[in-house]
Amino acid sequence: MEKFFIYIILWYFKITKIRSFNKSSTPRLMWGITPILNFKYWNEAVKNIGYPSSTLMVEYYSSINKKSDFDLYYDDIAIPYYIILLRKLFPKFKALGQIHLLIYIARNFDIINTSYDGLIWADTKYWKDELDFYRRLDLKFVVLPYGSDYQMYSKLYNKSWHHALLMNYPEGLKKEKIISKKIDYFIEYADCIMAGFQFDQISRWDILPYAIYPMNTQLWKGKKNIQQLMELTVSSKYFTHPITEV
After folding, report:
1. Does any domain span residue 109?
2. CATH at 152
3. Confidence class of residue 238 from pLDDT cuts 50, 70 and 90?
4. Residue 237: its pLDDT value, please?
5. Residue 181 belongs to what domain range?
6. Is the pLDDT confidence value at 245 over 60?
């Protein structure tokens, strides 16, 4: 029954062309839903060059992050009356009770920057239906893996790394099957994959794989005596020369 309601609601919003309500000449970017701090800095960087951009997260990691690190959370999105009614009638239909979040994303964004985790229905059996819904509405996917979203322990080349993951994150071993399915999906349908530096089990990347660590340089202030710190004296039996430019 839940799948029937999901199909009807998504079908209705598709035929009513919900994306025509908020057309934008400038691509609107979304980052989420896994609250990794890199998304915060990516989001701030593209805002600084003039793109409308926002993070949307399911939660935040209070031990290492602040709630203010991200723009929006699920609870910030207004719940339509029909969702409130459906939640009361079908309290066990958790995915159905979140369907307004899919509609919000489809209405307000053009490019979804995410990980292999997926999005709103990432932990449900409807994860693929959600991604298909966005694709049919011509949203674009950029995938930025971060670690546990794509690491399949049995396919790691480095057995020392394999052992370290088993000792520290043993639960990751149980996710290989679903991780494999999501990787296959995005390999086929993503518009861009930025693989990072760990790519043992990933067959596709669209830019040179390298470690991506966004940093807001505007928050860093150089010391007044930075020139002194940068001076390096190179000495040998032939010459002594201060280097003042790096």
Report:
1. yes
2. 3.40.50
3. very low
4. 43
5. 2-217
6. no
